[in-house]
Amino acid sequence: EATRAAADGALEALLAAANRAAVERATLEANAREARARLARAEARLADIAREFAEATAPNDLAKRLAAAETALSEATIAAERAAAAADNAERAMKAADADWQTVQSAFATADKTRGELAAEVRALEQLVAKPMGKGFAPVLADIDAAPGFEKAVAAALGDDIEASLAEKAPLRWAGAAERKTVWPEGVTPLAPHVKAPAALAARLSMCALVPRENGAKMQPMLSPGARLVSREGDLWRWDGFVRRADAPAPAAARLEQRNRLTKAKAEFAKADGVATVAQAKLNAVKTIRANAEAALRTARAAAPAATAEAVRRTSARDALIAEERRWSERRDAVGRQRTSIEAERDEATTALSTAESARTEAAPTNERAITAARAEADSARAAAAEAKAALSIIAKADATRQARRAAVTAERADWARRLSTAAARLDEIATARARETKTLDAAKAAPAKTEERLAKVRDQFDLAEKRRVKASDALAEAERVARDADTAAREAENAHAAKREARAGSQARMHAARERLGDLENAAREQIGCEADQLAERAGALMTQALARGPLADLDRKLERLKSERDQAGPVNLRAEEELEEVEARLATLERERADVDSAILKLKQAIGRLNAEGRQRLLKAFDIVNEHFSKLFATLFEGGQAELRLTESDDPLAAGLEIFACPPGKRLSTLSLMSGGEQALTATALIFAVFLANPAPICVLDEVDAPLDDANVDRFCRMLDEMRRLTDTRFLTITHNPVTMSRMDRLFGVTMAERGVSQIVAVDLQRATEMVAAE
Question: Is the pLDDT of residue 8 over 70?
Answer without folding.
Answer: yes
